[in-house]
Amino acid sequence: MSSAYNLHIIENCLTCIHRENRLFCNLPKEALDALQNMKATSVYPKGALLCLEGRAPRGAFILCTRRAKLSTTSADGKTIILRFAEPGEVLGLTAVVSNTPYEATVETLEPSQANFISQQDFLRFLQEYSDVGMKVAQQLTHNCKCAYDEVRSLGLSNSVREKIAKLLLDWAQHPLELPKKKPDEIALRVTLTQEEIAQLAGTSRETVSRVLGDFKSKGWIRIKGATWHILNKPALQKLVTI
Amino acid sequence: MSSAYNLHIIENCLTCIHRENRLFCNLPKEALDALQNMKATSVYPKGALLCLEGRAPRGAFILCTRRAKLSTTSADGKTIILRFAEPGEVLGLTAVVSNTPYEATVETLEPSQANFISQQDFLRFLQEYSDVGMKVAQQLTHNCKCAYDEVRSLGLSNSVREKIAKLLLDWAQHPLELPKKKPDEIALRVTLTQEEIAQLAGTSRETVSRVLGDFKSKGWIRIKGATWHILNKPALQKLVTI
DNA sequence: GCAGAGGTGTGATGGCGGTCACATCTCTGC
DNA sequence: GCAGAGATGTGACCGCCATCACACCTCTGC
User: From residues 198-237 of A, which are strand C contacts by CB within 7 A?
Assistant: First the structure.
């Protein structure tokens, strides 16, 4: 066990206590043995770029700790966030499987650990163990679902207000367990900047500021630093038609 | 060999002449044998709905002939087209793999043949043959790529003009081989209605009409029925920043 | 040939939200 | 405590495009 950036490093996949709860890592012993032998564990600082959109794939990353941001950028510099990846996800998978450039840029949100597997090793791994094929299918399925949700959000919303209300309600699915002033308040921890929320909703930073201000003035939400409270969930739900 | 709707029916996957060119079907003999035994071949009229968004998955469909339209609809009736599926694609895959409702509605564009495989059979098929896992990974990868392209189109475009120019240029990748009046003209066969183009671009039918009219008046395109000509590709490219 | 349905062209109108500009607030490191 | 960077709040402006309305065009079936 070593540590850097105040991270607890997971050296060994076979003894990893998180394994069973994670999308990709819960594999049978033989597959894990093989994985253990070919992976290269690294620790990255906040803001590290694991994959670069448009670059030829070197391999895939299994994210062990903390979250990462997947984004894509247009020629004129506009960026849109595709999704956030959780620990236990494989990143760069589409590129490795189809041997095409990375679809998205992957950036660590905080200091993170990830296991790197070269494209060659990964494809052999996938060929050899049918359980790996199953996990890969599940990961890709998850990616598709997220992408479809994004398409629905971008293409079917009638307004930015609606998209942001939708985001808030999505986040409310995983609330914090904080002491509440009122029983129907929902507490959230939001570490995104308004700029990032804008990139999630496909809008501008200023509009996010205005919409959130509007929600605050209506008493639907309260924001204090990274702790947000949803005070009037039904009002937000009434905005959402998707 | 039977026929209906003027379709040439492919009864047997093992002797199918298209197999090698298709995304899913090019499997080793043992897998094809198994597939042949569990598939249920059907012929559908134009406009048939193979999968219904939000419904529990019954199984997956392998599209044998003609194309199908994948779309998703919001509560207030707005529809967006996710992509068009080609022969040899598996449809309803995400739903079957993750045992969640169908993500999209699948509608045949013309009379089509498809092979149905029940969810149970498909999952067993996937477990048993690692080649199937590989094909499934490729199909899901393709779905992801298409979805990401759609996200980029919807989220990063600066205008509807840009999105429509992008569509035209995408279609120009697969031109018709027609006698050309000028060497740099590109001939296309476009069977979509303006309504469908609007659903692809996430805009309204009227705007599509206006933008196409604008392109026509500028001499960038020519439209005669389902045969379209791109006359000034560079002009269209200059609109696209993605 | 005619009716009806579906597809397309086009004007008028109004609002949402992008953009620019700048003030203010908050955090971080030294 | 201070400087500087980054994040946020807010006003002004205006252009794109959604929407409504309606004419016209092009099929198809009878």
Answer: 202-204, 206-207, 225
